């Protein structure tokens, strides 16, 4: 069996290692450059590869193709493979049949990384033999090749789910759905929503779907489509006989006739959206019958995720917060919503078709000044130019932080929450966040 891998990144290399171990004839092809450390791994495992090109003769003879999530379906080589009837799948789909581990799959437009990390933290603290993968950390396929975990907690993007056909998590979570990446979905929101719900398409009566019952897109989909999974909702406004909710500053979880409650003030994560992430993760812990004391302790000592509402430093009584992971309007909405002090907001980057009107009421209420950090800031200036007193444009992170410091006074917060992708000035949102932290430390 010939396995061709398109994309020599983390998921591609992991799949190559697993494929080789399982006896496939493996070839890796990347249209860009492959990182040096990945090339070494391929050489050590005697796996042939090419970079900066796709040689059709070496690709179109594949029996199965694993496509990296970053490669769109409309790329010419993918189209040719599909026309030939070659099966093109994601790393998750390829690797899942090679493990007997129980899989917990987590998707959503926002909150999926925090929910994934918190779920992993809850299980790991309870002594569960668990791996963490998918969209974060070490490739799932690589771990299936090297490790013997009993459970996996996988963060799954819509791009990864587009390439699954038989994949079936025992527990699925959809944190929320808001418009994102629509350029990959023919600018049709319903296509993107359907893509997220692929997480539950193969689930059976013995499986679980945990979801945000306050989310309009999710609720609408569930009223017009069927899933066999047992539904476990969570909400900030409704209560359930089976599910999770917040009432009088208490988080209540009711699952399989068992109750769990905890004061929200003892939960390390702050903000309403994080209460939802905590309810989703705790629902998994309850399904797995983890002890209440362990759950309480884990929820109170969880450190959060880097680049997601991460408190960097307080300088001259001004709090600097790194929310570089906010690459869409919905994520920035959560960030602004959780601000309790006058805020200097650093925003901008590559716009993915943003509608800034959703942020208008929060900006009026919380934001005193805006620092635009991007190559093209026209939409931001048009939206908020008349709403805030001060607005400046910069093209480097160090200038952005210095300017924010000038515009702020004691008791204020400086928030980096870009609502945009980072590729105009930075390598990635991680690079953007690290540069922000470095610039703050240099003040």
UniProtKB/TrEMBL annotation:
Where does the record place the Mur ligase central domain?
Answer: 106-284
Q: Name one Pfam family in it.
A: Mur_ligase_M
Q: In which pathway does it act?
A: Cell wall biogenesis; peptidoglycan biosynthesis
Q: Where is the Mur ligase C-terminal domain?
A: 307-420
Q: Which residues bind ATP?
A: 108-114
Catalysed conversion reaction? UDP-N-acetyl-alpha-D-muramoyl-L-alanine + D-glutamate + ATP = UDP-N-acetyl-alpha-D-muramoyl-L-alanyl-D-glutamate + ADP + phosphate + H(+)
State its role.
Cell wall formation. Catalyzes the addition of glutamate to the nucleotide precursor UDP-N-acetylmuramoyl-L-alanine (UMA).
Please state where this protein is localized.
Cytoplasm
Report which superkingdom the organism of origin falls in.
Bacteria
The Enzyme Commission number assigned here is: 6.3.2.9
NCBIfam families reported for this sequence: murD
UniProt name for this protein:
UDP-N-acetylmuramoylalanine--D-glutamate ligase
The record's InterPro entries line, in alphabetical order, gives: Mur-like_cat_sf (IPR036565), Mur_ligase_C (IPR004101), Mur_ligase_C_dom_sf (IPR036615), Mur_ligase_cen (IPR013221), MurD (IPR005762)
Task: Cite the entry's keywords alphabetically.
Answer: ATP-binding, Cell cycle, Cell division, Cell shape, Cell wall biogenesis/degradation, Cytoplasm, Ligase, Nucleotide-binding, Peptidoglycan synthesis
Q: Which source organism?
A: Flavobacterium tiangeerense
Which family is this protein grouped under?
A: Belongs to the MurCDEF family.
GO MF annotation terms: ligase activity
